[in-house]
Design a protein that fits this description.
alpha/beta, Aspartate Aminotransferase, domain 1, Aspartate Aminotransferase, domain 2, seven-stranded mixed beta sheet, four-stranded mixed beta sheet
Length: about 475
């Protein structure tokens, strides 16, 4: 029996199709209304002034009837697209029966946990536990902090420069971005940040990496060696000036930091350091997971198993809020109520997550994401512009870093490129420590034809903007 329609049937056919000025009159009314009555914390409409009305697959229609190719996907939430019929059918059936269950056993909950186990990294498959504490990725990170402290007895935490882990107090403590923290200190103490390997920015020679790398089988990348050396010192320097960390939190690929892909040996090195120091290794797969990179989880591409793994975004299937953490069963030392949350029983989202897994498997979307991502990155690399410093990513997790004539980060170029793409019917986003990375997060259901059309528009925008800048 087919699992939902094929991906080419999911979308509005006419995308992209822009009929009005952007934003159009109805969208402007909604944006102005929002500005009058909504919170001052609202951010995204200021950069992307759109008033969405209907979504189908990889396409989004606004209040004025303009149809966009959505290569933004709610910051990587809609991995199986807007309003996927197979997922919505499961969600709506559940919604008609029961919605809120805290953590009482239901088929929806148990089926979802079992489905996640089937796609777990090899070292966790069949020997893990799942916990749900709240509806967001930040909640999942908070749960991981509690898990690490409860199991290691240590309060120290280690994260990385360039990281983003969420906006609640604990998650914000791990997050590296200073702008997110201003005015909210003090946060959790004994949090230290080590350099995340960033080969493009560091521009260091690879020769001699083994001289500083703590791994015997050094991958030969100096940026990786320097980072691992710093992490090791955070644990083992007797004059480090802080409590020994109980755990390491790391994004296998940094998202907000600029779609930064670490060298091959990095996660393996972290695994070794954690093991040598009786610390936990916790992967934040909130943005990089659930098929985004062409693997179910980005860590699989490196062959490294974490002790715990946080997840959110795409796991709710239809964009429903759901955050959770998978961890090795040996860390399941909580007593009843050890980690709680009123909305940890969002079973429509769990039904949606199970249906999304079914759809991805039935339609071969992991391989599709790998192939489509390679095509999209190749199109970006083919743009002949000295302002593209580097193109990187895995699967449909894509970043292009822009620089000025002197090689410095150029966020204004990215801002202008995004605006031109938006005006021509393609939604893209930004990332990077300086906002100078063009980030593409198209749904896994994006077709080759849509990718070709979208990349035509994106590459034309890059050429036009960078030529004018030159």
């Amino acid at each position: 029996m087919p699992v939902g329609p094929p991906i080419h049937e999911l979308h509005f056919e006419e995308a992209p199709h822009v009929e009005t000025s952007i934003p159009g009159p109805k969208s402007k009314q909604l944006l102005e209304r929002q500005e009058r009555i909504d919170s001052g914390a609202v951010a995204y409409p200021k950069d992307l002034p759109i008033a969405p009305e209907t979504g189908r697959g990889s396409t989004l229609k606004d209040a004025d009837g303009n149809v966009f190719l959505d290569f933004f996907a709610g910051i990587g939430v809609l991995n199986v697209g807007h309003s996927n019929p197979h997922v919505l059918e499961a969600v709506n059936e559940q919604t008609n029966e029961l919605v809120h269950t805290i953590d009482f056993p239901t088929e929806a909950r148990l089926d979802f946990i079992e489905a996640l186990d089937e796609i777990a990294p090899s070292g966790l498959q069949g020997q893990n536990r799942m916990v749900f504490g709240g509806p967001s990725g930040s909640d999942a990170i908070e749960g991981s902090i509690k898990l690490a402290r409860h199991n290691t007895g240590r309060h120290g935490m280690l994260a990385f420069e360039g990281s983003y882990h969420g906006g609640t107090a604990g998650a914000l403590s791990l997050t590296a971005g200073k702008a997110y923290k201003e005015g909210y200190e003090p946060l959790l103490g004994d949090v230290v940040h080590a350099p995340y390997p960033y080969p493009f920015r560091e521009a260091l020679e690879d020769d001699g990496a083994a001289a500083v790398c703590p791994r015997e089988d050094c991958c030969g990348r100096m940026s990786c060696a320097r980072s691992l050396e710093a992490v090791k010192a955070k644990f083992e320097d007797p004059y480090g000036g802080h409590e020994t960390p109980g755990a390491i939190w790391v994004e296998p690929i940094q998202g907000e930091g600029g779609v930064v892909v670490p060298p091959e040996g990095f996660l393996k090195g972290l695994r070794d350091i954690a093991d040598d120091n009786d610390a936990m290794l916790i992967f934040d797969e909130i943005q990089s997971g659930f098929g985004r990179t062409g693997e179910w989880w980005a860590c699989e591409d490196y062959g490294v198993t974490p002790d715990a793994m946080t997840m959110a975004k795409g796991i709710g299937g239809a964009g429903l809020p759901l955050g959770g953490m998978m961890y090795h069963e040996k860390y399941d030392t909580w007593d009843a109520g050890g980690h709680i949350g009123t909305f940890r029983g969002n079973i429509p989202a769990m039904r949606g997550g199970t249906a999304a897994i079914e759809y991805i498997q039935a339609h071969g979307l992991l391989d599709h994401a790998t192939e489509l991502g390679e095509y999209m990155r190749s199109r970006l690399r083919d743009v002949d512009s000295p302002h593209i410093g580097v193109v990187r990513g895995k699967g449909l997790f894509i970043g292009a870093e822009f620089i000025d004539d002197d090689g410095n980060p150029d966020k204004e170029l990215v801002k202008a490129i995004r605006k031109r793409c938006y005006e021509n019917g393609v939604l893209v986003w930004k990332a990077g420590r300086d906002g100078n990375v063009l980030r593409l997060l198209p749904p896994l259901v994006t077709t080759k034809e849509q990718a070709e059309t979208g990349m035509d528009i994106i590459c034309d925008a890059i050429r036009t903007v960078t030529e004018n800048a030159g």
